[in-house]
Amino acid sequence: MTLKKLLKFGIVAGSIWTLHQVTTMEVLAQELPSENLTANQETGASEQPTNSAGENSDNLPTEAATEVRERSADPAITTPEQPQNAEETNIAPDSPSTAPPSIRPKEIKFESNADIENWREEDQPDHDPNRATVPLANRVPGSRVVNPLANPEAKLHAVSLMNSKAADHASVGGDEFKAYAFDYWQYVDSITFWDGPIPSPDVIDAAHRNGVPIYGTLFFNWSSSQEDQEKLLDFIKEDSPQSGTFPIARQLAKMAKYYGFDGYFINQETTGNSLREKGEQMRQFMLYTKEYAKSLDYPIRFAWYDAMSSYGTRYHVNGVDLFGNQM
Q1: Domains of the chain, residue spans
Q2: Contact between residue 21 and residue 60 where contact means Cβ atoms under 8 Å apart
Q3: d(CA 266, CA 207)
Q4: Which of 64, 113, 250, 269 is 20 to 30 A from residue 38's alpha carbon, by CA?
């Protein structure tokens, strides 16, 4: 290697080392407690120009020392731990449940069977934003048959989690982004809003524009706990023994009409001794709900997840047979 190349290599290496040294001292300056800097000044270190690490800048090359002095004197340069403005510390969280109070109405939320029983239409003066406005359109079949061998009676029902925090989001929109915009309406004959018993109005209207009935979800845990069994028994309780009428059934019909959706998807996976022989009562509950909805001039539909047998026990069969034929 020639002398010229050696000199050139040495200059480049020296520049890299100088930059590394300056950067290292700036990092140390951010990590050192402020009292250490004060102590250095009291012991006489302040008599000479110092860098941000409290070290003598005269030990640095002239250009590096000048840069350190300029950066130390510039009030606009802050450490990463010091936000430049208050907005950086007030970034809105993704989940609106932790956001400040707002006048924007929230989605409908039910924590218990009692919440459903206590629901009254006249007590919902601010719930207009939660109500659908688009009636169910007639489905228009396409003129082109894609598969002539397909069974024209076959139907496809989708169960879609469109908004996992529906009960915490504003009905009229917000700055959250965790929402699934379903766009396969042409392929489904009906759909379930898997997020809760009351579909949000934007989803209802989108489904209805495409001629797709939409159902809310009535969810009963995969469980054999006594608490969950009692929850289901309370849900399907009669007004009086053997009356054949059900208070929560009437509420379900009223809520479907008020908010403008088409029925309910029942996911019933709770089992246990307390539910034995309750399959028929569940069936009568659904029949009564549909009958009561007709009396309101608002017929509704049910979709049923195949888990509860007609005997009341949990039994998956993926079809209709001896155990599920009455459900």
Answers
A1: 3-73, 106-140+154-304
A2: yes
A3: 19
A4: 64
- How far is residue 301's CA from residue 290's CA, in Å, rounded to a whole number? 7
Q: What is the 3-state secondary structure (H, E, C) of 124-182?
A: CCCCHHHCCCCCCCCCCCCCCCCCCCCCCCCCCEEEECCCCCHHHCECCCCCCCCCCCC
For 224-276, the pLDDT digits (tens) are 999 999 999 999 999 999 999 999 999 999 999 999 999 999 999 999 999 99
Segment 289-327, tens digit of pLDDT: 999 999 999 999 999 887 788 778 887 776 666 555 545
Does residue 145 register a pLDDT over 50? yes
Going by C-beta distance under 8 Å and a sequence separation of 6 or more, which residues neighbour residue 9? 1
Q: Which two tokens stand for residue 278?
A: 């309750």
